[in-house]
C-alpha cells in the first residue's frame, strides 16, 4: 500500500529512502505489520510530522543544537514530550537520508563495510552506511535524549520549589487572613460594647 503522507506514531521504527530510477520514496517500518511505502522522501515525512506536532523542522534542529551542542546531522525530538527521537544516516540535504527511532534499535554491528541493524521486533536490515558513522549518529541521539531529560528534570525541580514556595506563601496568607479576621471581630465586639453603654 502506498500513500502520499505518513503520520509517525508510537510504533514507527524507521523511515528509509528507497530509490526507483530517478525518484526517491520512503519505506516506513512499524513494530507490527508489513512495511508501508510512501511517495514522499524521508526528510519530507519528518518535516510534515514536525508541523503535525506544531513545530517546524528548523526549530527542532535548533532545539537539538541548544540542548546538546550537536552541529550537523541533527537527531530530532519530534514531539514536545521527547517520546519520539529520530536520528539520520546522512545530511538532511541528501535525498537518500534515512531516519531511525532511537527507541526501537536493539543492536547494530559492522556487516561487510555497512551496518546491520536489529530492531526490537527482531527485524534485521542492512544499511548503506559505515558502522562508525551509524554508531556516531546513534550516540548523538542518546546524548540528545539524556540532555532533554536533564532539562525536563531541572524544569520539574524549579516547578516543585516554586510550588513549595507558593504553598508556604499561601499558608502565611491564611494566617494573616485569620489574624485580620480575629482583629476585625474583636473591633466589632468593642463597638457593640460601646453601643450598649
TrEMBL record:
Gene that produces this protein: comK
Lineage: Bacteria, Bacillati, Bacillota, Bacilli, Bacillales
InterPro entries tied to this protein: ComK
GO annotation (BP), single: establishment of competence for transformation
Highest taxon listed in the record's lineage: Bacteria
Organism: Jeotgalicoccus coquinae
Listed name of the protein: Competence protein ComK
One Pfam family in the UniProt entry: ComK
Amino acid at each position: 500500500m502506498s500513500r502520499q503522507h505518513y503520520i509517525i506514531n508510537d510504533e514507527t521504527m524507521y523511515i528509509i529512502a528507497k530509490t526507483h530510477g530517478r525518484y526517491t520514496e520512503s519505506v516506513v517500518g512499524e513494530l507490527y505489520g508489513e512495511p508501508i511505502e510512501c511517495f514522499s522522501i524521508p526528510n519530507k515525512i519528518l518535516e510534515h510530522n514536525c508541523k503535525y506536532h506544531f513545530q517546524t523542522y528548523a526549530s527542532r534542529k535548533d532545539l537539538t543544537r541548544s540542548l546538546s551542542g550537536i552541529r550537523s546531522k541533527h537527531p530530532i525530538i519530534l514531539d514536545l514530550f521527547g517520546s519520539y527521537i529520530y536520528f539520520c544516516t546522512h545530511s538532511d540535504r541528501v535525498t537518500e537520508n534515512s531516519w531511525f527511532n532511537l527507541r526501537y534499535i536493539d543492536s547494530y554491528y559492522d556487516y561487510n563495510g555497512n551496518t546491520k541493524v536489529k530492531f526490537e521486533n527482531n527485524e534485521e536490515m542492512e544499511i548503506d552506511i559505515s558502522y562508525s558513522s551509524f554508531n556516531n549518529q546513534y550516540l548523538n541521539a542518546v546524548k540528545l535524549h539524556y540532555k532533554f531529560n536533564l532539562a525536563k528534570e531541572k524544569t520539574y525541580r524549579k516547578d516543585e520549589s516554586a510550588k513549595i514556595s507558593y504553598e508556604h506563601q499561601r499558608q502565611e496568607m491564611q494566617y494573616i487572613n485569620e489574624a485580620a479576621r480575629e482583629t476585625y471581630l474583636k473591633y466589632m465586639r468593642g463597638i457593640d460594647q460601646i453601643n450598649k453603654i
